User: Which sequence fits this backbone?
């Protein structure tokens, strides 16, 4: 892991990685360099997505062999994310392979985190570590601490009511894995957060607990200063754009909450419907046993209803596993965003208070003292970071919800198609003329 | 259009159509001179001219449910070997929560109207029942019909329940086919009841699923108000949810029709059982008569030969109080011989009766089986077609509802 603070990369607005100093170019310079991006030809090749075999440049550091399997799976990951169209990706993170660990004190699940990167911050091109939920929680806390001006993606809920939900059931673990994977991918996509040290440590350290104990406190300049802002300043006016964001988030979270409740209710009703269907189908079978000519048709109807029942079960499972978690995640996201907004308000309030204090002091005329200037700096940086993140968030939100709603519609359509098929297939059976007995 | 052959007084055959075209609420006074509300149904009969197929209204009268019941009870008594078509249910059963159990509810009245029409058509298309005079009068003679039916004295001819039950327990040699048929009708009744009960619960639950989706409509609309690019897509989705939720009413109404078709056969099971019971009764009657005859023959023989093998009161009293005179004995033998002769005649005719009953009943049962298989197959087909059309409509609706999202491209 390369030492030193991350380069002060411009974080205002979504910038293509191309515009930023190439991480692998001119490794000697650690200052913020803008615009100098003339990578060597072989590195360029590595960045073209058309190549089947991605060449991972070693830039002096020993590289692990890039197996064909990993290249193609890398390609898959590239193709999945169309948000970074035209942008180069040099960091790929995946969460998979949940495993249960049974110890004397506790039982818990770990997930494998696989990282592939060409970034100079990573000593090796590839890493594979195991992490558990509390490690993710640690990471998120660290990110919030060290990047308070940015929106940190949410984690799936920490606590589950024991007895109601089985923490070790396949469905629960899989739902959690997907959410954790999304969490890391969102950080990976973020031009600032992805370079955070804690993130790096999380992805690479063999023994994370050792690092936790060391208490890595590598904070950015902005982060540190924001951390020490005392609360208690009263903000007079939230600027229009942030007020609008705040209002939007309030309504958004409210609506999502309602949708979540409705969705849960629907699933409950569908399950009860399923229970009745599972009793309904077999009665036709019982009847079929009494009949001669009608035996086959009745048995056919019984089987058909059975197929519809199975299709319905698949639908409710999908809704539970894919639909509800995304709603919950965005509700959590909104909550954390609102608290970032509040922090921003605090920074602005401090600045305004200090400014006012200066204005009241008659002696120090037009010259604005250094610390007030620092406050102004802080505020402006915060505003810029937040605006950029909001825009990024809005884009992602649109993508995610479009996918979600279309996915929900598709799952329903598939359910009706399965039922349709089942009923259509028994029509010929029902119409069949029985041979004269 | 239902054609059938009907005989009038002068036995001319005509093709006619029957319909129960209207239902009307009426108030009147009942037998105990109390105000009551009931529904009357308009029965229209049309005769069809062979040549041009045009139909002319020949009769139209109003009847209430109780008159239909009277007609059916009459048919049951006079045609015990026929599987008499059932009436639609007296009270609404197998209802799910949205369906009213109230006899005055317009939907219930409508379904009953259809059921009564179906009953008349079944009777009219039955080769034997259609020729019945009382049935003809039911369709044509509004006033006085009730009196006419009662004058036939059919209530007196009806077998008492007790008698029937007794026969069921004590009959020794009923025709095996009737035993099986009775067993079948019991099972059929049980399975269709179960089916209807579960179907009603299924309908209830399905209703719930659809209606809860309706809640999405409003919230999607409200959400769309705060979104820029996503607004249209959300509006469309919300609107679709409203349409989806509303569609369940028609879907379930169609399904009620299927339930009614099943109900008819549920009630037909009872009609089947009635025929079996009649067989048991006639058979028991026959067995009893044969038993009596055998007993008399034995008695006669004993008197003639002087051996007393069977216990008889006369024999006992004779032993106790003295022998009877040879003249007395002769008289008794003669009487018994008369009775035996009578009994043999009766037995012969009862035997014939019994065999006739079995033959005729079984013929109608075969006819019924064919009808049942045909009708239920048709009912299942139309049920399947209903499901198919529903799936297509709803699936298409979801597709339409999301079409804006789909076509909007990457960033909506």
Assistant:
């Amino acid at each position: 892991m390369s030492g030193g603070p991350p380069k002060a990369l411009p974080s205002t607005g979504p910038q293509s990685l191309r515009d930023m100093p190439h991480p692998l170019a001119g490794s000697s310079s650690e200052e913020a360099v803008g615009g100098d991006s003339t990578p060597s030809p072989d590195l360029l090749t590595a960045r073209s997505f058309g190549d089947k075999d991605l060449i991972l440049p070693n830039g002096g550091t020993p590289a692990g062999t890039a197996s064909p399997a990993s290249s193609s799976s890398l390609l898959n990951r590239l193709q999945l994310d169309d948000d970074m169209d035209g942008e180069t990706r040099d960091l790929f993170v995946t969460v998979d392979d949940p495993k249960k660990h049974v110890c004397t004190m506790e039982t818990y699940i770990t997930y494998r985190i696989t990282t592939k990167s060409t970034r100079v911050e990573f000593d090796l091109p590839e890493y594979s570590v195991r992490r558990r939920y509390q490690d993710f929680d640690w990471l998120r806390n660290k990110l919030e601490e060290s990047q308070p001006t940015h929106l940190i993606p949410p984690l799936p809920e920490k606590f589950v009511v024991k007895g109601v939900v089985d923490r070790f059931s396949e469905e629960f673990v899989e739902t959690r894995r997907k959410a954790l994977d999304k969490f890391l991918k969102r950080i990976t996509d973020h031009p600032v957060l992805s370079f955070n040290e804690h993130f790096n440590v999380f992805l690479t350290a063999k023994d994370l607990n050792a690092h936790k104990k060391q208490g890595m406190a590598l904070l950015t300049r902005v982060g540190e200063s924001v951390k020490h802002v005392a609360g208690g300043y009263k903000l007079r006016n939230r600027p229009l754009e942030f007020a609008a964001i705040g209002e939007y988030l309030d309504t958004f979270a409210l609506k999502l909450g309602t949708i979540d409740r409705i969705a849960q209710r629907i699933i409950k009703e569908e399950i009860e419907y399923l229970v009745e269907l599972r009793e309904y189908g077999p009665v036709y079978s019982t009847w079929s046993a009494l009949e001669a000519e009608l035996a086959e048709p009745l048995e056919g109807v019984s089987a058909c209803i059975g197929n519809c029942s199975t299709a319905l079960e698949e639908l409710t499972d999908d809704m539970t596993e894919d639909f509800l978690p995304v709603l919950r995640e965005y509700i959590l996201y909104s909550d954390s965003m609102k608290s970032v907004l509040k922090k921003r308000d605090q920074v602005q309030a401090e600045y305004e208070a200090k400014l006012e204090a200066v204005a009241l002091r008659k002696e120090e005329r037009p010259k604005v003292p250094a610390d007030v200037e620092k406050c102004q700096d802080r505020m402006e940086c915060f505003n810029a970071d937040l605006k950029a993140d909001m825009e990024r968030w809005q884009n992602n939100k649109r993508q995610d919800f479009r996918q979600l709603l279309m996915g929900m519609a598709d799952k329903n359509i598939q359910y009706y198609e399965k039922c349709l098929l089942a009923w259509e297939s028994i029509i010929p059976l029902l119409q069949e003329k029985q041979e004269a007995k | 259009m239902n054609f059938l052959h009907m005989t009038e007084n002068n036995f001319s055959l005509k093709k006619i159509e029957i319909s129960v075209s209207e239902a009307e609420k009426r108030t009147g006074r009942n037998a105990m001179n109390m105000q009551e509300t009931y529904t009357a149904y308009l029965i229209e009969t049309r005769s069809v001219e062979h040549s041009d197929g045009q139909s002319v209204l020949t009769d139209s009268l109003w009847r209430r449910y109780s008159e239909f019941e009277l007609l059916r009870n009459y048919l049951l008594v006079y045609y015990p070997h026929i599987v008499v078509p059932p009436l639609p249910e007296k009270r609404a059963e197998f209802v799910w929560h949205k369906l009213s159990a109230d006899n005055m509810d317009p939907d219930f009245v409508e379904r009953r109207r259809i059921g009564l029409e179906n009953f008349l058509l079944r009777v009219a298309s039955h080769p034997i029942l259609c020729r019945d005079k009382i049935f003809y009068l039911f369709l044509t003679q509004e006033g006085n019909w009730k009196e006419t039916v009662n004058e036939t004295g059919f209530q007196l001819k009806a077998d008492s329940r007790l008698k029937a039950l007794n026969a069921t327990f004590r009959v020794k040699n009923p025709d095996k086919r009737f035993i099986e048929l009775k067993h079948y009708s019991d099972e059929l009744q049980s399975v269709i009841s179960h089916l209807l009960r579960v179907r009603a619960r299924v309908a209830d639950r399905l209703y719930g699923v659809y209606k809860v989706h309706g809640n999405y409509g409003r919230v999607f609309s409200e959400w769309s108000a705060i979104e820029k690019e996503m607004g249209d897509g959300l509006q469309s989705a919300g609107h679709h949810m409203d349409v989806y939720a509303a569609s369940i009413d028609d879907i379930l109404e169609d399904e009620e029709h299927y339930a009614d078709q099943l109900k008819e056969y549920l009630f037909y099971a009872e009609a089947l059982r009635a025929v079996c019971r009649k067989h048991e009764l006639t058979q028991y009657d026959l067995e009893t008569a044969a038993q009596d005859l055998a007993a008399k023959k034995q008695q006669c023989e004993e008197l003639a030969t002087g051996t007393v093998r069977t216990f008889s009161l006369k024999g006992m009293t004779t032993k106790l109080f003295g022998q009877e005179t040879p003249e007395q004995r002769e008289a008794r033998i003669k009487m018994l011989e008369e009775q035996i002769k009578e009994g043999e005649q009766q037995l012969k005719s009862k035997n014939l009766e019994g065999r006739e009953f079995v033959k005729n009943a079984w013929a109608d049962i075969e006819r019924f089986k064919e009808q049942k298989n045909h009708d239920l197959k048709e009912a299942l087909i139309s049920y399947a077609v209903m499901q198919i059309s529903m799936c297509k409509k709803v699936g298409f609706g979801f597709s339409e509802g999301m079409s804006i999202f789909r076509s909007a491209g990457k960033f909506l």
